[in-house]
Amino acid sequence: MNKTAQDIIIRPIITEDSMERLQNGKYTFEVAKDANKVEIAKAVEELFGVEVAGVNTVSVKGKQKRMGRFVGYRPDRKKAIVTVKGDKTIEFFDGMY
Question: Would you give the DSSP letter of residue 11?
């Protein structure tokens, strides 16, 4: 099964922590749980036209949530922190920090 770049990169993660990392050229994305670092790097290069220096991944366990007396969990997800080479930026994040 061939995965496209859109299948690998699900959405950008916009939090205070991820906004501080933008100044160092690090961008945070939610990615497919079965994607590896090489696939993530190729997908970011294809979608945003930048050169990737490195990829760090974090598997995030879903938080426990309650609705009255019922208990459930949010879904597990995977985050990727992508470091970009040089001073090139990803346009989507420009003007956010």
Answer: E
User: CB under 8 Å to 77, separation ≥6 — which residues?
Assistant: 30, 33, 59, 60, 62
pLDDT in tens, 2-43: 788 889 999 999 999 999 998 888 999 999 999 999 999 999
| Ordered strands of the 26-31 beta sheet | 9-12, 26-31, 77-84, 52-60
**Phi, psi at 90, each rounded to 5°:** -90, 120
Please give the backbone phi and psi of residue 3, each rounded to the nearest 5 degrees, phi first: -95, 135
Rounded to two decimals, what is the model's pTM? 0.85
Please check whether the domain covering 5-86 is classified as CATH 3.30.70.330.
yes
Domain boundaries, the chain: 5-86
Determine the longest span between alpha carbons in the chain, in angstroms: 52
- The total number of residues shown for the chain amounts to 97
